């Protein structure tokens, strides 16, 4: 059979198997199957440690049946069968409900695939699928390394393995695969050919085979990604834009004169970078990342003022109405009369600052849109409402996107499209990004970093409150909060859930009954704002002025609550993560995060940044039921142990699946990056970026490398490429 990379799998594997692979794994062509690499390799004598698995993971293990026991269930009809499997390094429990077995006997070897569940804090497989190794499998299973593939409920690892073998037999090897990498590049870096790498990754005979194959296949991923991003950078550099040079004696000078503090050296340096790029006639595309509280908003305001001085408008896109309203208040406060041009008490040399959100009433919305359309509003702050049809700018010169990770590329482009010519773009994030993530995810943007915090900040001390190990510590936490309030300060209490939305409860299984068939998590529900606020007001914080803030409140109620908190009319704000970004109340010095283990590392760092924004020292208490010795306890200890957001970003990357970091989980699509590790392959990514830049800089570009050009075109046009901007 003539096979190519674009051959439909149905021609090779048959319609039934091909359909299952397409529907459950998204594998449709020979290319898809060959690029579906093993997750790991099993050897007899090695055991997958359940401690290393996460609840919800679907995994496959190679093991031998040790014991099989069956009994009738007491509280429901049917039989519960428990199978203990092991392989020298440990044992694990498999649970089956009402299932009869023929060959599943003690001593049998097999592959067991299931979803990791948890019952009474013990991880297990409930109703796993399995494939027993028989004499028919000798050719595959006698190999030193048995590939274990990412699989699904409908397509197991052993089906994928047999499919690859069938493809190998049908094509007479992988000789039909053309290598897209230039030969001189392969030679410089000592890389295998693509056919050899694919053979070694799917049917290796040694660890060395796997290592060499993965090195080559990582290069494919890194180089194609960097070529796509490099092409975008080059295209952006050629876009026609409008120069917005700095003007002396204008709004920018007035902003600098009105600032009640000295700019940090980092703010000055980044400000000069932005000023120089805004003065060019090609649009700026820059990512500004920095530590929580490093003053990114001031840097953005100075850039917006420069654009207004040059006759243009600036739009600031914020992810929430709370944050948009705060940005508008903060900017108007810093500008004073300069933000009220055209009003009785306004400065005619200034401009208008307009807030545009979805909750605005009809009349204010019409007035805001009119000011945006006629150009009298030089600075426009808003949420997704800025993207709506009917919002027209007179001359949009700069788009500032705050908290970029909350938006997709579609929103950024929708706002850019409202300019007469492509506007300058400044993307901001307060979530520090490791260098390799910045190169891989935001590689089409130039990057600026703010590390230095403004002087006069009190700093934040953080501690974990492990209530399972040290229950009395929680009482002391509330005492500590009361002490701060008594000293005239304020506090946040953050919970992972709002409350009242749950229609039922998670009942514990009957003691005499079997584990749940779903393998469900038996942890209690996350703590909720409404429940915690009530308990605190009647208990340890009785007598203090408490208020709640969450996403289900009306915009007016949220705004009123935040104004009351900022005016010191509220002592303790019990809130969800709606306070995670941008909220700035300098008098707040304490944050207590309930169920801290339910939050990610970067999210905890963001939350912690809401306190100690003034001269007083802050305190962040991470309350958890996780034991100190567990991986979760150690992760929280890492957050408490450092205030360096860039170091925590690496911890975050180590504890999360990289697909989530790259956005595959957000977009629901398969990630093109399968083997590349953003932490371990930093040098490879940097080298691939340099090679990509050199290839694109040649006179003919990729014209002499049609295979590579095809891979780049496929990624650049494939909808899956969306994950690059969605991280």
From TrEMBL:
InterPro entries tied to this protein: DEAD/DEAH_box_helicase_dom, Helicase_ATP-bd, Helicase_C-like, NA-bd_OB-fold, P-loop_NTPase, RecG/Mfd, RecG_wedge
Acidic residues biased stretches: 501-514
GO molecular function annotation: DNA helicase activity; hydrolase activity
UniProt xrefs under Pfam families: DEAD (PF00270), Helicase_C (PF00271), RecG_wedge (PF17191)
Keyword presence, Hydrolase: yes
Limits of the Helicase ATP-binding domain: 277-450
Keywords noted in UniProt: ATP-binding, DNA damage, DNA repair, DNA-binding, Helicase, Hydrolase, Nucleotide-binding
Record region (Disordered): 499-525
SUPFAM superfamilies per record: Nucleic acid-binding proteins (SSF50249), P-loop containing nucleoside triphosphate hydrolases (SSF52540)
The protein's Enzyme Commission number: 3.6.4.12
Residue intervals of the Helicase C-terminal domain: 473-659
Keyword rRNA-binding listed: no
NCBIfam families on file: PRK10917.2-1
Protein name, as recorded: ATP-dependent DNA helicase RecG
Gene source species: Geodermatophilus arenarius
């Amino acid at each position: 059979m003539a096979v190519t990379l674009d051959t439909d799998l149905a021609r090779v594997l048959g319609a039934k198997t091909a359909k299952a692979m397409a529907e459950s794994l998204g594998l449709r062509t020979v290319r898809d199957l060959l690029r579906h690499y093993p997750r790991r390799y099993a050897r007899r004598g090695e055991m997958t440690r359940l401690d290393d698995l996460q609840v919800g993971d679907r995994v496959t293990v190679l093991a031998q049946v040790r014991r099989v026991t069956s009994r009738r269930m007491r509280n429901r009809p049917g039989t519960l069968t428990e199978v203990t499997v092991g392989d020298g390094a440990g044992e694990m429990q498999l649970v089956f409900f009402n299932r009869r077995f023929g060959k599943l006997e003690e001593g049998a070897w097999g592959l067991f695939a299931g979803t990791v569940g948890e019952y009474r804090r013990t991880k297990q497989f409930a109703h796993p699928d399995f494939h027993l190794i028989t004499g028919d499998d000798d050719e595959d299973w006698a190999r030193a390394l048995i590939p274990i593939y990412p699989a699904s409920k409908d397509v197991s690892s052993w089906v994928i393995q047999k499919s690859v073998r069938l493809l190998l037999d049908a094509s007479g090897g992988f000789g039909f695969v053309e290598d897209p990498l230039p030969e001189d590049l392969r030679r410089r870096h000592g890389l295998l050919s693509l056919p050899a790498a694919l053979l070694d990754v799917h049917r290796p005979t040694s660890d060395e085979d796997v290592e060499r194959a993965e090195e080559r296949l990582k290069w494919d991923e890194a180089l194609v990604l960097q070529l796509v991003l490099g092409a975008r950078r080059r295209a952006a550099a050629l876009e026609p834009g409008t120069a917005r040079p700095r003007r002396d004696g204008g709004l920018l000078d007035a902003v600098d004169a009105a600032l009640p503090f000295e700019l940090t050296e980092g703010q000055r340096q980044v400000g000069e970078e932005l000023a120089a790029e805004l003065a060019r006639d090609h649009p700026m595309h820059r990512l500004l990342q920095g530590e929580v509280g490093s003053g990114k908003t001031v840097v953005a305001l100075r850039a917006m003022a420069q654009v207004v001085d040059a006759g243009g408008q600036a739009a600031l896109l914020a992810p929430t109405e709370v944050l948009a309203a705060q940005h508008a208040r903060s900017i108007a406060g810093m500008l004073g009369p300069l933000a009220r041009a055209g009003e009785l008490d306004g400065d005619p040399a200034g401009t208008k600052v307009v807030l545009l959100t979805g909750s605005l009433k009809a009349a204010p919305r019409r007035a805001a849109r009119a000011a945006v359309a006629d150009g009298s509003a030089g600075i426009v702050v808003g949420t997704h409402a800025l993207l709506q049809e009917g919002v027209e700018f007179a001359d949009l010169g700069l788009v500032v996107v705050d908290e970029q990770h909350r938006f997709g590329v579609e929103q950024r482009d929708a706002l850019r499209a409202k300019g007469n010519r492509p506007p300058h773009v400044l993307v901001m994030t307060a979530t520090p990004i490791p260098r390799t993530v910045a190169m891989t995810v935001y590689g089409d943007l130039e990057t600026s970093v703010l590390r230095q915090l403004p002087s006069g900040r009190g700093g934040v001390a953080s501690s974990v409150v492990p209530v399972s190990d040290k229950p009395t510590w929680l009482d002391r936490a509330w005492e500590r909060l009361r002490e701060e309030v008594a000293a005239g300060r304020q506090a946040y209490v953050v919970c992972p859930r709002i409350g009242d939305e749950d229609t039922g409860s998670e009942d514990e299984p009957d003691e005499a009954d079997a584990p749940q068939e779903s393998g469900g998590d038996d942890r209690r529900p996350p703590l909720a704002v409404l429940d915690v606020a009530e308990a605190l007001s009647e208990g340890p914080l009785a007598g203090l002025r408490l208020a709640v803030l969450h996403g289900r409140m009306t915009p007016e109620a949220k705004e009123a609550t935040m104004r009351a908190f900022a005016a010191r009319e509220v002592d303790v704000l019990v809130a969800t993560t709606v306070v995670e970004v941008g909220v700035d109340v300098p008098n707040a010095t304490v944050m207590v995060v309930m169920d801290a283990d339910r939050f990610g590392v970067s999210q905890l760092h963001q939350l912690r940044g809401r306190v100690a924004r003034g001269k007083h020292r802050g305190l962040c208490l991470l309350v958890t039921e996780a034991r100190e010795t567990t991986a979760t306890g150690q992760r929280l200890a890492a957050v408490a142990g450092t205030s360096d957001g860039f170091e925590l970003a690496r911890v975050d990357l180590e504890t999360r699946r990289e697909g989530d970091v790259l956005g595959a989980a957000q977009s629901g699509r398969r990630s093109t990056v399968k083997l590349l590790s953003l932490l371990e392959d930093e040098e490879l990514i940097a080298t691939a970026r340099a090679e990509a830049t050199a290839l694109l800089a040649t006179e003919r570009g990729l014209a002499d490398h049609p295979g590579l050009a095809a891979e780049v075109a496929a990624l650049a046009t494939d909808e899956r490429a969306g994950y690059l901007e969605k991280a």
